[in-house]
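lol ok so funny story. i was supposed to be doing the assay writeup but got distracted and ended up predicting the structure for this chain instead. priorities right. anyway since i did it might as well share w the group, maybe its usefull for someone
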Amino acid sequence: MRSAQGLSNSVSKRLFGFVTKVNGNSSDGRQHKPVCSVVELVTRDSVVAYAKYLLNDRKLRGESAIQNLVSLYATLKQHPTYKAHDVSWFKDVPSGIQLSAESELRARKEAKSLPYEALVDIAEELHKQRAEAAKMGPRKLAVLVHNELLLRFLLVMVWRQLNIRKCRLGSNLFKDTISPFASMVVPRWVKERIKINPREKFWQYHFREKETKTAHEVRSVLPRRLVPLLEEFLEHHRPILLQGPDPGTLFMNKKNGPLTAGEVGSLVGELTLKYGKKRVTPHRFRDAFAYWWLDQHPEDYLTVSKKLWHRNIQTTIRNYGCKFDEAQADCRVEADHHLSPSHLVPARIQRVLFSCSLLPVYLCIFRCKLFPFPISAPQRLLSGCFEEALASEHPNHECVMSLGGPFLGAENE
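and the output, tada:
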């Protein structure tokens, strides 16, 4: 097949993989004839054959197979040479693939996850290992602090792993003054410090539209609980890890280069397996944070949406609203001690009943003004037994109470 010039490495790899599988033996056992161009290759029959290969030969789940097809479709749409090629039929292929049940997907995700508190404990455990690591040399300690900072960023910032591994010092993460005309909201502690010193510098992060998955700019002040560890790493430990040209990224691999997607996934998985007894991917930190926050702040999907850099809140509700099921609804209703039978009574009737309950008090006070109560009656009045107190002083109190009916009715009309 002729080379497709202008394609990025990742796009070229996806096309190459597709060509290799479709031009080779697929699940139907037939040998496909060689083709000369992507346009000739990408037909309905070849894509269907590729989907069968993913499902039958590689035993992928329906969701994973669809993701492969979506990536291939996006690959074609990225290159100007193939934009004019009609692939409208492509979208019909995934519709025939059976998806897993929602409960099965949720169970599978939970099997690969840890609660947010357990992930925090892993970072704390790394911090406790410092003294032991220091005995083994400064480089061992530097690696430990590097890994702790990585976990802290995943826990506090909950960035996607792409932004974690591509975060560049001076560009995405920097320390500078904050302009009074800056469009971002700053924490209260920052405002107080700026009042004292307008030229004080603060750690900030900034990702431009092309640097985020959702293609929108993100800018904010770095949470101050990360600052001491960050500055310690940059000043004392990162220089020890450098063994050549500085890659410019905050986090690095063993070869002194930026972390790849596979490397950051492997590193995080090894740490969680060692200290949490379960291999957890970087993306599961985002899920853990979202569920933890919603547990502490029910229905606050907007904060979760902004914290995870979602394009809209519907994505957040779709992904994390599944935790709010019928059982949780029952628990929340039962736990609401403010809920009482009075909430089930219409407001107008509540006002009438409330006025009726206060009428004996009004009558008692009026009676006290004319004729002092015996000592026992005020005691009963103060204890809340209004009607009993009135009965002890006015045997005909029922007649008096009955007079309030038309009055109260007229008052609440």
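The chain has 21 helices and three strands. The longest helix spans residues 347-370.
back to the writeup now i swear
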